[in-house]
Amino acid sequence: MSAAVEQGKDYEFKKYKTYALKVDPNQNDKAAEIKLCNFSRPHMRAFHCSWWTFFVAFFIWFAIAPLLPEVKDTLGISKQDIWTSNICSVAGTIVMRFVLGPLCDKFGARILMGCVLMGASIPCALIGLVNSAGALAATRFFIGLGGSTFVMCQYWSTSMFTKEVAGTANALVGGWGNLGGGVTQIVMGSVLFPLFKTGMSAETAWRTVSIVPACVGALTGFTILRISDDCPKGNYKEMKQNGIMQEVSASASFRDGALNFNTWLLFIQYGCCFGVELTMNNASASYFKKEFELNTETAAAIASIFGWMNLFARGLGGFTSDKFNAKMGMRGRLIWQTVCLLIEGVMVLIFAQTKSLGLAIFILVIFSSFVQAAEGSTYGIVPYVDPPSTGSIAGIVGA
């Protein structure tokens, strides 16, 4: 059943007369529920566009990661050069997340999401042209810009759902999007790369296979611009033209977010979980190949397990955060966040000392689950810090 929007003096400025979800008129018609099998505009369409776009961005970002052993052998570069390229890949994301956060407050998430994804697809398609360590690092830096779509992903979800369910919504779109980091390990390393090798040399295969995710990324970025909305009442441009939304200063938004002490506490906490995930996505395939003497395809398949936990773990982290909030308020969210981070820390220490492949995989599953849960719980807190500067805060914390 569709729930009719509350009619008021600004009724004529609403893009949709009815919504498929229950909404809260006191929170700008944000949805008060999540229906995963619903794809209607604006709420659930934005929900699904958000996680899918972020998924594709992660797929692009880490497409080359499971193939780095092949790249290393072909180019004759050192392990240090590979780590340098990993750092550059993350650096590109950090820079853009700081920039895009306040821009979300000004322009909304949809346009920025589409443009960044299409832009990141270009260096992804060109990575096969690299012939030196420097070229690899530079190309991965620009591909890393795609990782900044996380900010838009979280901002878009926050724009569509009430605070009562924002933790779950943010965790689901973030977790399912992060899943791209695990899927790319197995698709690129264990499916597409071997498939391409059947008709060409290993070198030619890794140099051409990234064209596939690049094409998917460009198409996805273009499509979401045409089929989704910025927020429940319409697009930012239309709302500003009709006088129901004030113009926002990106610099003022960033200043307010940056001067809030809680922003930087969350920045540190998120770094302790998402930073770990980035490291694992970049290095786990190489680690399993060297530590347990596996081939590239098998190592990539095992490494993908870390990312696959995003299918449920991050969403569970956000859902649990919402439940703790319902019973204990913000204190409940903070307690759950602390529990997740503590267990994550214990698991990473155990994983580092594990020498059995079977046990390492078992610990990896538990370790990854609490990493993702901590990420979900973090963004259950973000919308409460300073609502008018949510984009800037999401960008700073996510950086």
TrEMBL record:
Membrane topology: Multi-pass membrane protein
InterPro entries named in the record: MFS, MFS_dom, MFS_trans_sf, NO3_transporter, NO3_transporter_NarK/NarU-like
Regions crossing the membrane: 51-69, 111-130, 137-157, 177-196, 208-227, 261-280, 292-313, 333-352, 359-382
Subcellular location per the Swiss-Prot or TrEMBL entry: Cell membrane; Membrane
Pfam families: MFS_1 (PF07690)
GO biological process, one term: nitrate assimilation
Residue ranges of every copy of the Major facilitator superfamily (MFS) profile domain listed in the record: 46-399
GO cellular component, one term: plasma membrane
Main localization (coarse): membrane
Keywords tagged on the record: Cell membrane, Membrane, Nitrate assimilation, Transmembrane, Transmembrane helix, Transport
GO molecular function: nitrate transmembrane transporter activity; nitrite transmembrane transporter activity
Record family assignment: Belongs to the major facilitator superfamily. Nitrate/nitrite porter (TC 2.A.1.8) family.
Name of protein: Nitrate/nitrite transporter
Lineage: Eukaryota, Sar, Stramenopiles, Ochrophyta, Bacillariophyta
